[in-house]
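Supplementary Methods S3. Input chains for the assembly prediction are listed below.
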Amino acid sequence: MPLDVYFLPASASPENLAQRTVVVIDVLRATTTITQALAAGAREVIPCSEVEEARGIAEQLPGCAVLGGERHGRRINGFDLGNSPAEYTRQTVGGKTLVFTTTNGTRAMQSCRGARRVLLGAFGNLSALVESLRTEDEFVLLCAGTLGHVTREDVLFAGAVIHRLLASGPVPQPWNDEACLALSAWNGILPGAMNQETLRDALLDSRGGRNLIALGMEADVAIAARIDTTKMVPELQLASWRILPLDHRQQC
Ligand code: MLT
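Predicted structure tokens for the full assembly:
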């Protein structure tokens, strides 16, 4: 059964994702930030494509909702939080519903409506994600990219997932060409990539990294480069359109 990587949501047709397990990847910064928010105790995350949609949902949840996200990389006017993972702490989001919208990451999730299952990946949950993929006999790694452009940081993460899987057991076959390219990209920065500084430098030298440097937000890149800071794997529940911790059913 296949392992497919798509470097952009637009590269994957609805049929490519239908009834499959899809991992959405937006390392800089949406999936890193959502993972951090849930690890910090957010109750759930509602991903929205549009700013007004997010405002409308938050208005229906007075006292329970935190509005977060970005446009052009910056916090949206009237929102509580931006898209920096460091903003998402127990104090800011603990016990709250995070209503969240970003330019590329939350929109990439929209393309997964026909999937069987949707997980979110970031370097912070790399090992936990790989562990949860062990039980899948096929899956898709879907990179969010930036405004229709391929981004190195997301491709590197897709390669890191495949590399980790290969190191510890059987991996679904066959792969599409993007899966082979992603693994080559990751192997190209190994062995140093397991060192946080080397990975941070590679992420800084990416489309998303350069955007964040221009915004004075390179500290977010250093956070996104930390591998295995949490066992939290966010899962987008397609029926309710809520992102919850993967093992939330066991926690209930
Ligand atoms: C996005 O979803 O577009 C990104 O997370 C952009 C950003 O880094 O703020």
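The mean pLDDT is 95. Residues 26, 28-30, 70, 73, 83, 102-105, 144, 208 surround D-malate (CB under 6 Å).
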